[in-house]
Specification:
This protein is α/β, with parallel strands linked by helices. It has 2 domains: 135 residues, Rossmann fold (3-Layer(aba) Sandwich); 121 residues, Beta Barrel (Elongation Factor Tu (Ef-tu), domain 3), CATH 2.40.30. It contains 9 helices and 14 strands. It has a 6-stranded parallel sheet, sandwiched between helices. It is elongated, with a radius of gyration of 22 Å. It starts with a strand and ends with a helix. The protein binds flavin mononucleotide and adenosine-5'-triphosphate. The site of flavin mononucleotide has 24 residues, from helix 8, strand 12, strand 13 and helix 9. Pathway: Cofactor biosynthesis; FAD biosynthesis; FAD from FMN: step 1/1; Cofactor biosynthesis; FMN biosynthesis; FMN from riboflavin (ATP route): step 1/1.
């Protein structure tokens, strides 16, 4: 998949099927739209996701979003920040100049409430009308629902902020995860508590509340169940950054420097400041029992 961040001009694409929106996390509603543009590859179109706007903190990192879209079969991800020029562009000019002119669109898929262009005056109906005139097809999808609530990035963010990992998984179709290279901690865990793997998530990634979670850590060729602390480790003086620190139940390997992806299954408790290392250790043992029980009852 090609990834392009638009600084000024859009690229010229000879034949495209496009879906439009913010696409912060790729939730189940977005997945439906992406599947639609992928179907158009059979007609010779390039499947293009045009992601408008960038939030300062996102549900998925750039790399995660790219990987998910690539695995789904998307050909090109165009990331278009909301510059003055884009924000002031009239909806009809956006259709004529960008969709028709640059992207040579033959098919557009959007959700029913999608709005675009200056003052958000562009609507799915307008896309349909222009499509008739200029020869592209617009498909408007009803919003995918969870009961009576529309699935949206806002909904996903709310559940992530609550630490509701089960709901996150349901809305996104995949676990909340943090990935990176295992780093050295201060070595105290190994000596006085339990051995742990440390990851430092990128600052732009939206994180669940600080606390302890039941997780599965995936390494290149093997996976381990465990419990993970997200936070600053206040009992031992605290770190400025947020760490993701995991005790793996059945592992005594040296994992420093290895790539690791931690999948979050369930929130257990908030991070706490304990009065002593012994008190923290006793709590960790109780957490580990709860974690093991969780996997036994699956
Ligand atoms: C499952 C788990 C839960 C933890 N819970 C807490 C906690 O509630 N409060 C806290 O201050 N530190 C907590 N920690 C962090 C420990 O303080 C940390 O493992 C220890 O200080 C070692 O850090 P180091 O690897 O940087 O040496 C937790 C760690 C793990 C693995
Ligand atoms: N639940 C859904 N079902 C189908 N299409 C959706 C759904 N949610 C969003 N879309 C469509 O996906 C595209 C991208 O959506 P976008 O990321 O802009 O909105 P969102 O997910 O509702 O996020 P936010 O809550 O931040 O507004 C738009 O065309 C939008 O209409």
């Amino acid at each position: 998949m090609e990834y392009l961040r638009i600084e000024n001009d859009f690229p010229r694409i000879s034949h495209s099927a496009v879906t439009l929106g913010k696409f912060d996390g790729i939730h189940r509603g977005h997945q439906k739209l992406v599947e639609k543009i992928i179907e158009q590859k059979q007609e010779g179109a390039q499947a293009v996701v045009l992601a408008l706007g960038t939030a300062s903190r996102t549900i998925l990192t750039k790399e995660e979003r790219c990987r998910i879209l690539e695995e789904m079969g998307v050909d090109i991800l165009l990331e278009c920040p909301l510059t003055e020029k884009i924000r002031h562009m009239k909806a009809e000019n956006f259709i004529k100049e960008i969709l028709i002119g640059d992207l040579q669109v033959s098919y557009v898929a959007v959700g029913e409430d999608f709005r675009f262009g200056y003052e958000r005056k562009g609507t799915p109906a307008m896309l349909k009308e222009f499509g008739k005139k200029y020869g592209f097809h617009t498909e408007v999808l009803p919003k995918k629902m969870d009961g009576r609530r529309k699935i949206s990035s806002t909904f996903v963010r709310e559940e992530l902020n609550r630490g509701n990992m089960e709901k996150f998984r349901f809305l996104m179709g995949t676990d909340f995860s943090v990935e990176g290279i295992v780093e050295h901690g201060r070595g105290m865990g190994h000596k006085y508590l339990l051995p742990t793997t440390n990851l430092i998530p990128p600052v732009e990634k939206l994180m669940p509340p600080n606390g302890v979670y039941i997780t599965v850590s995936h390494f290149r060729d093997r996976s381990y169940q465990g419990i993970t602390n997200v936070g600053h480790k206040p009992t031992v003086g605290g770190e400025k950054f947020i760490g993701v620190e995991t005790y793996l139940f059945d592992c005594n390997e040296d994992l420093y420097g290895e790539y690791c992806k931690v999948d979050f299954k369930k929130f257990l408790r908030p991070e706490q400041k304990f009065s002593s290392l012994e008190a923290l250790k006793a709590q960790l043992e109780r957490d580990a029992v709860k974690g093991q029980e969780y996997f036994e009852t699956l």
